[in-house]
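User: I want to check something. If I give you two sequences, will you return the structure for each one separately, not as a complex?

Assistant: Yes, each is folded on its own. Here is the first sequence with its structure:
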Amino acid sequence: MTDPTQHTPTSTPENAAPDVSRLTDPAFLVHGDPDVTGHLLDRASSAGELLVAAVYRASTHLHRDADSAAGRNLLALDAARYGDRELAARIAAVPVVRETGGWGVAWATGSPIDARLRQTFTGHTGWVTAVAIMDMNGRPHIVTGADNTVRIWDPATGVQVGEPLTGHDGLVWSVATVVMNGRPYIVTGADDMTVRIWDPATGDQVGEPLTGHDGPVWSMTTVDMNGRPHIVTVTDSDNKPVRIWDPTTGVQVGEPLTGHDGPVWSVTTMVMNGRPHIVTGADDMTVRIWDPATGEQVGRPLTSHTGAVNAVATVVMNGRPHIVTGSDDMTVRIWDPATGEQVGKPLTGHGGVWSVATVDMNGRPHIVTGGRDKTVRIWDPTTGEQVGGELVFPAPVTTLAAIATKSFIVGFGHDIALLTHL
């Protein structure tokens, strides 16, 4: 039997006319020689051939060095960016030797793509730097920050909901969601050193901007205090970079949390010993845990990274929360917050790690990471091993967020994509 993962024949008999129809064969696109494929792209004429040519060219600079699995992932992603989900599905179904863990692209935006060619929806005109998930009308929705706007997306269709939220005077670096008076609201932080709250139902800003930081607001999260959600924000300022806010009053709560020696890039929350705690990662290569009720640091700093800690998240292992961190030192590390010790070996393979999240896969939580090397990788936290091959993107992966069981959002370049476990 012929091995379906072997390359489709790529040579053309001498003096024979190039068979342009091969462009519509997904197996040829995945396994074909890039030189031969590129030769055919210029001869595309039908609507289907022209679409395939545009899809292939979207990441043509990456195809030559990509193996069949990475190339298939790129082609499926770019087909989704052009709005052709049927083509994306056919490409994703092509067998390859090294599978990527069974993840497929449900949809993707195509912001930089020529409007005359794409069939998909566009939005941001700058790099997507933040993503959060919000329940709206009984369903999860995606909230993204980029350029100086915030946008809401329907995950079922990839269509933008309503008009962009505008008001920040600078790039939006962070987004979160908070429930007040039984309704969801969006919280954003930006280059203009302000934090703003928005009503997604109306698109209007709620109250005055929260001010006090003297640097861009790089990351944010929410933490429960006294039975109500509060906002935690961090900046690259050396002057009191971690602050807690009451969203109902717009007033800062307590004194800023101090201890990091330099800018703070990332923040998350976790429950430890039945109480909420704040976790921060910073330029000083440390991770710190804080008690929001007292503003005091809990235990000693977590140290092992040799580069800035760009991303923090939590994952449940053996029934207890653990901290996951990603760094400029090209490693992902898992920590036991109860002991302050690193668990297992560093997870390696990335370039600089810019984003970390967790997602359910096969009934167990897994770690998802993305970074400067334009890849997303899935890890089994119990073994420390990568699950499947890396997923390749045409731009660095700036942000990640789990949206539901077996699904997560990837922010890369100007675009976002929904990936699901097949």
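And separately, the second sequence with its own structure:
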Amino acid sequence: MRQDLRVAAYAVCVRDGEVLLARWVARDGTKRWTLPGGGMDHGEEPVRTVVREVEEETGYLAEPTALLGIDSVRVKRLRRFRAPGDFQGLRIVYEARITGGELRDETGGSTDRAAWHPLDTVPGLPRVALVDIGLDLWRERPPAGRSRLAGQTDD
């Protein structure tokens, strides 16, 4: 069984009662809102990853202001050609503030839209579990950086 590990960094950007989200497009065409962020390049610092990814997906320049926590998700599924796979995602979650840039949608990436959403409307959005985990970390600020929602998957 092939094992894959993906390390990624994400931002929780809350401003005036709204959270910045990017709409992720799955391979099957399903669209769900997620935190702006994504995979680290080899040798890249996590803080640089989150800054780069926020700009790529939303057009904004962001400054990480706090490390909120780390989430780990594990999914076993069939890979291409029906071979079994074991995927683990390590997701580093930062609080960040917007320092510049202009809101725009990503082109040619894994997201197709970026938008601010009132916090009270988030539960009604089609979203990945990471949105709830990130907002829980932002609200609760657990000392060990582990959300009470840890272990949720997006499948």
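Because they were folded independently, the notes below concern the second chain alone. The two ends are 20 Å apart (CA to CA). Strands lie at 2-12, 14-15, 18-25, 31-34, 37-39, 60-78, 84-101, 111-118.
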